[in-house]
Amino acid sequence: MEIEHWAQELRVSCFALAVGLKSEGLVGDSAFERIKSHRVQRDLKIDPELPAQLTPHQRDRKSRLLAKGLSDSYVILCMEAASQGLITHGRLAEALLCDSDELHDLLSLYGKSRNGH
Length: 117
Known about the structure:
Blueprint: H1 2-9, H2 14-23, H3 29-36, H4 56-67, H5 72-83, H6 89-95, H7 100-109
């Protein structure tokens, strides 16, 4: 449906799309109600944290991170802190809720090595 398409394209919920259109005066009350009642199916949602170019292994690993509540921005921030010597690799593993072996995989996923490059 057109509404779901535009919500997906703009990476917003149908409700947020309806509110935006209404606040800009682009739709009236009846269209607002109709748009906000739509939902993008869960299996069709595009997650900006899981871009299409990821390999199946990378997608699985990032999905597991997200399930733990670890966003891309948080992981990158933690890795930058470790590469700057602000935290140890042990503390990095703790912050990323993983053990030493998992940390190695995670660093590889983000194109990093133990020495920060």
